[in-house]
Structures are given as structure tokens and as C-alpha cells.
Description:
The complex is a heterodimer of chains A (about 160) and B (about 200).
Chain A: H1 4-17, E1 24-28, E2 33-38, E3 45-56, E4 62-68, E5 77-80, E6 83-86, E7 88-92, E8 101-102, E9 109-113, E10 130-136, H2 138-143, E11 147-159
Antiparallel strand pairs in A: 1-3, 3-10, 4-9, 4-11, 5-6, 7-8, 7-10
Chain B: H1 2-33, E1 50-60, E2 64-67, E3 84-94, E4 100-105, E5 117-119, E6 124-126, E7 128-132, E8 144-145, E9 152-155, H2 159-168, E10 175-181, H3 183-188, E11 199-204
Antiparallel strand pairs in B: 2-3, 3-10, 4-9, 4-11, 5-6, 7-8, 7-10
Amino acid sequence: MAKLPKIWLLIILWLCFAPHVFAEIRIFGLTDFDFGKWVLGAGPLQDNANLCVTVRPPGAPLYQITAYGAGGNNSFVLTSAGNELPYRLFFNDRARPNGATEFVPGQALISLRARRRGGPNQTQCNRPNANISTLISDVDLAQIPAGRYGGTIILIVGPE
Amino acid sequence: MSYIINNNIFINQSALIHIVKNQFVKILIVILLCPFSLQAATQGSSGSTSSGTVEINIVKNRTILITGLRDFNFGQWNTGDGTLIDNDNACVGKTNFGTYGIRAAGDGNGFDPAAFTLSNGIDQINYNVYWNDVATPSGANIANQLTPGVIQHGQNEGFFHTIFFFLFGACGENANIEIEIPGTELQSGSGGIYSGTLTLLVIPD
């Protein structure tokens, strides 16, 4: 019975140094990329959007993110009537596209930091702390048949 | 009393139909204005992991098209037959007004990777390519001789052709390609079956 307090102490210490076990994470503030019409000679297409990733408790701010595209092996492609248009996808754990890291489909980008810009309880992404950007090559655009191309990216975040 | 109640019900039904109609019109307008599906980014919820989705959409316009091409089979050539010439009508369609450029590239040789050449596996012979932005061989006398790998700008599609192509995607014959194999080239080559591929590229100017 005398050892019981020590066990509780160990549990409390473990909880303090391993907060990720009970961490809650959320990705939100996501927006679509609608590029509209592209014509030959218009050059490559690129766009980026800020978003929010919050981690609770805030003592465990590191997270990882994985992106899955709509193509085979989760590749990043847009499709139209069986035709595929590849695109590249980048992520930055700051609210800017500069310094972003390129996603590999299905592989996690790790050791990302969820900076507390809006607080863990924010419901609206008023102060974003991450950025996702995409790039579509004009060479690829020139080679594909005309049509409406679309695709979905699934983003999954988890605490570290 | 019963009449009044029924009347009220009638009015409510009418109002309901009116509201439904309005909603239907609004939804229809949204659908018509939205070029893609009504899917949008979905936001993640809090949990041990969190997932969200993002849509990417783009429309690639039909900008330019070359079609109506066929192979050229000249058959057998014997010494003294002279130069071989054949032509074919084709279609170049664009969705914008203005001229276009055409580039032709052959199988190449040791000096020029785009040279217009035919080969029998041993020897190569050269041929000439002419492009006319008017269909039918009657316009062949104003055809441009193409230089291998070089874009010849300033080709006209035709005003009404552009309109028809833009509106209906209809691509009628509005150009002509002519292949000329000089007799001197044929004379110089060894016997055999000569063949080659000609690649045509059209781009809006």
C-alpha cells in the first residue's frame, strides 16, 4: 500500500511528459482552389491558402500531416473523363507559402509546429498558422485534352 | 367557420408552393453559376487525428486542334517516274480569333533532328512539306514550304470557321498539306520500302 502514491506520482509525471497521448488536434479553415479557365500560353498555375491547425493541450504543439490525392496510389492528379492532370502540393507550418515542403502522397510531413496564433479554442480560422499551396505545370496543362478537371485532397493531421 | 379554415389552408398551401418555387429557383441559379459540383472544402473536427478535404478545379479550354489527317502512301516508284506529289485536306480549329502557327518535324538526320526524311533502314531520302491555310489543292500554289522544326506563323483559320468551331466544335476542312518527294532523291536511294513520320504542331499566334 505504501507504493501506491509512487505509482500515482509516476502516472502524473508520465502525463506531464507525454501530453500527446491525450492531445486533440484539428485542421480547419480549408478552402478550395478554383483556378477557373486556363488557355494555352497562360503559364503555370499556382495558388495557396492559409489554414489553421490547433493542438490541445497547447503544451504539445508538434504535429504531422499527410495528404492523399485522388489518383492511383493516392497520387496528386486532377481528372476529367479518364484523363489525368498531375499537380504538386506543398505545406508550410507558417501562414505563408515561402519555405513550404512538398508533399509526397501518403507520406507524413513530420515535426510541424502548431503555433498558437488564435488559441486552441478558436472556432473560426481568424489567425491562421499554416499554409497549403499547389502548382500545376503549364507543360502538363498543354498536353491534356480540354475539359473540366477536378480532384479532392484529403489532409489528415495527427499530434506527435 | 369551416369555409374560413379551408380558405386559410388554401392560402398557406399557395404560400408554401411560392416558397418552394423560390427555393428551387435559387438552387437552380446556384447550380448554373457553379461550374463544378457543389462540393467544397470540408473542415476537420477535434480528435486524436483530424482530417479535412480541399477541392481543386480547373477548366482547360479547347484552344486549338488539328485533325482530319491521313497517311500518305505513294506506292511503287520506278526510275523515270519523276517527282511524287500528294496532298490532303485537314482541319485546324481554334476558339479564338487570330492566326495560328504550324511546325512540322520529320524523322531527322545526322544534321537536323527535325529533317523531313524517309528511310529504308539503309538510306535516307529527303522530302518537302507544304502547308496551305486553305483547303483543296487548288490553293496549293500559295502554299508555304515548311522548314523542319520551324514554326510558320500567320496561318488563317477563317472567321466563320472559328465561330463554328467555338460554338459547336465543328472542324471542317480549312487547310491543306502537301508532300513532295523529288525524283532526284528517289533516284539516289537504294531499293526498298521508305517510310517516315511527320509530326505537325499547331499553336495559336
